[in-house]
């Protein structure tokens, strides 16, 4: 049971190429099957975090691999949605830039002595849920999704700037 959360994270990483192969397959149901794969991958994210906390099996590997797997899956799906014309390119680039910079900053913070770890806050979690919702709605080509993308992009930028402010504050305290 101790390794189950990490195994779920690894499963999510394995699901990325499965999602991509499915999305780009010639099957007439490919996009709907890809959506199901994405939803299952998202459920593994919820489940691995729950199990790690419930059974007190939070690990260094999990702290690094889990958010990396989440972001990689999310960005892979967003890329395919841009490629299919379901979402705007600018939306993808904003999310990609934010997530890439946040990953790089996260790795930098872990290398500090002492390392700085910034827990996700309610705005970060809300942004993640909104990106998830945007992805789901994009698959169904819901009208008005452009306005949701604007809102989510603004939330993502606010969340990122909050992350930077927390880093600067914590860095000043620890140095």
Automatic annotation (TrEMBL):
Stated family: Belongs to the CDP-alcohol phosphatidyltransferase class-I family.
Gene Ontology CC: membrane
Assigned EC number: 2.7.8.5
Entry-linked Gene3D superfamilies: 1.20.120.1760
Pathway: Phospholipid metabolism; phosphatidylglycerol biosynthesis; phosphatidylglycerol from CDP-diacylglycerol: step 1/2
Membrane topology type: Multi-pass membrane protein
The encoding gene: pgsA2
Role according to the record: This protein catalyzes the committed step to the synthesis of the acidic phospholipids.
GO biological process: phosphatidylglycerol biosynthetic process
Transmembrane residue ranges: 122-140, 146-165
Locations listed in the record: Membrane
Organism: Jeotgalibaca dankookensis
Record protein name field: CDP-diacylglycerol--glycerol-3-phosphate 3-phosphatidyltransferase
InterPro entries given in the database record: CDP-alcohol_PTase-I, CDP-OH_P_trans, CDP-OH_PTrfase_TM_dom, CDP_ALCOHOL_P_TRANSF_CS, Phosphatidylglycerol_P_synth
Pfam families registered for this protein in UniProt: CDP-OH_P_transf (PF01066)
GO molecular function: CDP-diacylglycerol-glycerol-3-phosphate 3-phosphatidyltransferase activity
């Amino acid at each position: 049971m101790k390794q189950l959360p990490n195994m779920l994270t690894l499963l999510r990483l394995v699901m990325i190429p499965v999602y991509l192969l499915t999305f780009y397959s010639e099957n007439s149901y490919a996009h709907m099957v890809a959506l199901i794969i994405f939803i299952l991958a998202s459920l593994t994210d919820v489940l691995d975090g729950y199990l790690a906390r419930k059974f007190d099996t939070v690990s260094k590997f999990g702290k690094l691999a889990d958010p990396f797997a989440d972001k990689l899956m999310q960005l892979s799906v967003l890329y395919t949605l841009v490629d299919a014309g379901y979402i705007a390119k600018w939306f993808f680039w904003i999310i990609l830039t934010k997530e890439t910079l946040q990953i790089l900053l996260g790795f930098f913070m872990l290398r500090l002595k002492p390392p700085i770890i910034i827990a996700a806050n309610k705005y970060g979690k809300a942004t993640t849920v909104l990106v998830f919702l945007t992805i789901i709605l994009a698959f169904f080509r819901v009208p008005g999704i452009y306005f949701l993308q604007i809102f989510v992009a603004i939330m993502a930028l606010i969340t990122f700037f909050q992350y930077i402010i927390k880093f600067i504050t914590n860095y000043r305290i620890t140095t």
